[in-house]
Amino acid sequence: MPNRVIMAPMTRSRAGEGNVPTDMNATYYTQRATAGLIITEATQVSEQGVGYPWTPGIHTDAQVEGWTKVTRAVHENGGRVFLQLFHGGRISHPVYHGGEPPVAPSPVRPKGELFTQEGMKEFVTPRALGIEEIPGVINQFRQGAKNALVAGFDGVEIHSANGYLPDQFLCDGTNRRSDAYGGSIENRTRFVLELVQAVVEVCGANRVGIRLSPSGIFNDIFNSDPVETFEHLIGRLNTFNLAYLHLVEPLLPVDQYPQYLDRVTPHFRRIYKGTLITNGGYDRDEGNRVIEDGEADLVSYGKLFLANPDLPARLAKNAPLNEPDESTFYGGDEKGYTDYPFMDEP
Q1: What CATH number is given for 5-328 in this structure?
Q2: What is the pLDDT of residues 107-166, one digit of tens each?
Q3: 21 contacts 66 by C-beta, under 8 angstroms
Q4: What mean pLDDT is predicted for residues 80-94?
Q5: d(CA 263, CA 258)
Q6: What does the pLDDT average to over 34-50?
Q7: Helix/strand/coil for 246
Q8: Residue of 164, 244, 282, 337 with catalytic role
Q9: Closest to 305 measured CA to CA, from 289, 291, 287, 290
Q10: Which strand (E) or helix (H) includes residue 158?
Q11: Is position 330 annotated as part of the catalytic site?
């Protein structure tokens, strides 16, 4: 890797018909090929996993062909790229599932509303997965990993953060099961560890990363024992020798939850023995600091990479940065997507 600047996964809702990546998506990622590593936007492993409109998948031949255009272009420009494997679980809506409710570990309805192609809609109560269905969901991730390799990706990241399906199994606020996948910390971490095992068998451990948010409350996720849960999980992850662990600092204030850590990276750095990526609103100076202090090996940037396709060069020179246009974050065309200027452009 030429630098320690990682492009964080960012949903942009700009996939084409059939949730197929397009030439515009290939341009977007290729513009950012100077990243130490690109991690793609969340990419659903099945129709069941869809959570948002116009997001890409990795479960049809057309989607694999679309992603192949992306990886080929990124590699031709010297880049490295992992695909993020995603299942929204309860963070979805019947509009994506033929009128049927989304699935989750337990029938616990999230608070709030969801962005859909038909506008904002209230969340619904999800359907609890039967224990006999769980191997099939794990197989969706396994097949997604196989498809990612066919599409030319250098590896995959399992999205187990931010309140989506794997995170829903981890947290007791969303996991009320009384079978082998619920109750104790060992049981609540079982689904994620089985996911990791399945994907590692496909890709090899050195091509698999995982993203976790130990102090996350996004998407109405809640855990009464987050430190103990994630200490157990991360300790078990050490046995896989993965490419990396990607930790997300709190996206929202956690002051009202005394059981949550204000900073997760330094705490879990002491437990995790492998390569660690940290994410969470870092600027240039703070990114340099966490690396110099040994808290992390790499730093992932979201909004800054969104608005600055040549972010590593700008950080190296301490050059001015483009400001991201939040009105163009989700959906739309090239505006706010592929039209941010490089340093040498007006």
Answers
A1: 3.20.20.70
A2: 999 999 999 989 999 999 999 999 999 999 999 999 999 999 999 999 999 999 999 999
A3: yes
A4: 98
A5: 13
A6: 98
A7: strand
A8: 164
A9: 287
A10: strand 155-160
A11: no
